[in-house]
Automatic annotation (TrEMBL):
Keywords: Allosteric enzyme, Glycosyltransferase, GTP-binding, Magnesium, Nucleotide-binding, Transferase
Regulation: Allosterically activated by GTP.
Pfam families the UniProt entry points to: UPRTase (PF14681)
Residues binding uracil, per UniProt: I196, G201, D202, A203
Similarity comment text for this entry: Belongs to the UPRTase family.
Protein name: Uracil phosphoribosyltransferase
EC number: 2.4.2.9
Pathway: Pyrimidine metabolism; UMP biosynthesis via salvage pathway; UMP from uracil: step 1/1
MF-aspect GO terms: uracil phosphoribosyltransferase activity
Residues where 5-phospho-alpha-D-ribose 1-diphosphate binds: R78, R103, D130, P131, M132, L133, A134, T135, G136, G137, T138, D202
Amino acid sequence: MRVQVIDHPLVAHKVSVLRDKNTPSPVFRQLTDELVTLLAYEATREVKTVQVQIETPVAVTTGIAFAKPTPLVVPILRAGLGMLEGMTRLVPTAEVGFLGMARNEETLDIITYAERLPSDLTGRQVFVLDPMLATGGTLIESIKFLFDRGAEDVTCICLIAAPEGLARLEEAYGDNDKVHLVLASLDEKLDEKSYIVPGLGDAGDRLYGVAH
Ligand SMILES: O=P(O)(O)OC[C@H]1O[C@H](OP(=O)(O)OP(=O)(O)O)[C@H](O)[C@@H]1O
Ligand SMILES: O=c1cc[nH]c(=O)[nH]1
Ligand SMILES: [Mg+2]
């Protein structure tokens, strides 16, 4: 597994504003969208392409197009939805599949309450979007789901991760070079409720309002 923490002042600045508890939902949504576009720049570096011939007003030259089958983008509902538009803006030919997962805040078990994905992902490059990697339970479950369907490789774009979750992911996929993780920040730790410290609170609630 490859892990990249994007060290860039534009990323760090946007994450700082996201963390601020006084940042209202509309600004939080806008920053989430902008951050995805910055992280996607690295996350898509190995997206498969083919050469195509194009004609400029001056000459014939060679360009590239995304290869087929097209990449699949999978936002993990709810919070991952806030990252979807930023990603599809950059990869407009991508298809989108949905996984709805929620962490039971008492037991930390993962409940999969929605799934709308192609049944066969053979040969597909998949980009998973979820702002938070806390205990790692959600991401491990999602990656397993996608490989079980035949995905060729899985790149996860997360905004903030905890070292505990990253360690669990390493345990599960450490020697799998088909898993790639791109982060804006690797934080200090989890608190007693398994929230990321300093983190930004509940990403889904901050994007869309308190669920319960
Ligand atoms: O690494 P984990 O410990 O599994 O936690 C991370 C998950 O928690 C959040 O979702 P949540 O369950 O709050 O659902 P929501 O997006 O609907 O708020 C977050 O968006 C991740 O999916
Ligand atoms: O800090 C956390 C942990 C899990 N889910 C979130 O949204 N935030
Ligand atoms: Mg939540």
